[in-house]
Amino acid sequence: MLRYLFSALFSLFLFSACSQDLDSVQGLAIGDKAPLPTLQNEDGQSLSLSEALEKGPIILVFYRGQWCPYCNRHLSALEAIRDSLELEGAQLFAISPEKPEYLQEMQEKTEAGFNLLYDSAYQTIIAYDLAFLPSAGTRLKYNTLLGAKLSEAHGDERELLPVPATFLIDQKGIIRWRHFDPDYTQRSDPSEVLEALKAL
Predict the structure, then answer these.
(1) Which of 27, 139, 160, 182 has the most crowded CB, counting CB atoms within 10 A?
(2) Which residue, among 130, 113, 101, 137, has the nearest Cα to 29 in the 3D structure?
(3) Does the pTM exceed 0.85?
(4) Distance of CA 167 to the CA centre of its chain
């Protein structure tokens, strides 16, 4: 009985510690050191962002999921400038809490030629200070009207989401540019991403 009570209390603490109100989410700032974990890509293969950084600057895009039309349009727009980004020596990665099979759906929808990465326990989203818990009503809308299936598509049932954000990370691992806006309809402009990269 005590073990069950301890487990329940620990789970509640962990849930509370990792979920935030949207108003308290700030995102990592320009000048901050960027966390660079190893994550699974859409094929289920491990990909080390720290190793990728050795090849050149990294552009990290955080998105909500394949069910999000704004995310679809944004990733498609970034795919359109991918060749230009790669000519500047940069690599583009997009991160979400969705499992690899859902990343594959996103890849098909957007024809993304860059790696989509699975943040299995929200660790990267939390590390970049992007994680928040939408209201129960909002989650119900996403799950029913948009088919998000958050608890099924994510690695656990917390149903956290990231504030959509874009970070440009130089080869020293420092964030040199970012786009962050709690309004999920506002995304980084691909031309501004490319301009920021050229200014490194």
Answers:
(1) 160
(2) 130
(3) yes
(4) 10
Task: Quote the CA–CA distance of 98 and 166 in Å, as a whole number.
Answer: 18
CATH 3.40.30.10 fits 2-198, yes or no: yes
Q: Judge contact between 150 and 188, C-beta under 8 A.
A: no
Which amino acid appears at position 121 of this protein? A
Distance in angstroms between the alpha carbons of the first and the last residue of the chain: 58
> What whole-number distance in Å separates Cα of residue 132 and Cα of residue 144?
20
pLDDT digits (tens, 9 = 90+) for 26-81: 999 999 999 999 999 999 999 999 999 999 999 999 999 999 999 999 999 999 99
35 in Cβ contact with 68 (< 8 Å) = no
Alpha-carbon distance of 155 to 150, in angstroms, equals 9
Domain boundary assignment for the chain: 2-198
Distance, CA of 29 to chain centre: 16
Lowest mean pLDDT among 14-28, 144-158, 160-174: 14-28
Side-chain-side CA neighbours of residue 92 (13 Å)? 24
Euclidean distance between CA atoms 118 and 11, whole angstroms: 22
The number of residues in the chain equals 200
